[in-house]
Amino acid sequence: MRRMGASTIHQTIDRWHAYLRGDDPDGLDALLADDVVFYSPIVYTPQEGKAVTALYLAAAKQTLPGTGATGDGTTGPGTAFRYIKQVLADDTAVLEFETSVEGTYVNGVDIIRIDDEGRIVEFRVMLRPLKAINLVHRQMGEALEALTAGE
């Protein structure tokens, strides 16, 4: 693991959060390195390149937004996507999230590694429980099909 300024990973993750909030809707292209590799919790083979990674992240953004916050800070059906823990060190960020999809609780981790310029070179997603994985698998397939149909 190489050492880099702590501020680089913080700046990249701040930009990632801005993209997810909708503050920078076109920001994903600048965040991703051309040779980024995406590791899906569903697909065994790593997905290589900016275009396919952007496609998977766009589909995930559609699939995992949740169905609206409960308003009382609790988790469960109706909970919107949110990061609940964040660990940043050197060139890597680990972001734990939770949401609810079709009433099913989804808990996962995004592991993001960046290059010296602060671009994402590796994006891994891990999910639990199994019921959520199966549901997200179905919905991601539908979202990817819809996104690629427009090409």
Automatic annotation (TrEMBL):
<dbReference type="Pfam" id="PF12680">
    <property type="entry name" value="SnoaL_2"/>
</dbReference>
<protein>
    <recommendedName>
        <fullName>SnoaL-like domain-containing protein</fullName>
    </recommendedName>
</protein>
<dbReference type="InterPro" id="IPR037401">
    <property type="entry name" value="SnoaL-like"/>
</dbReference>
<dbReference type="InterPro" id="IPR032710">
    <property type="entry name" value="NTF2-like_dom_sf"/>
</dbReference>
<feature type="domain" description="SnoaL-like">
    <location>
        <begin position="14"/>
        <end position="122"/>
    </location>
</feature>
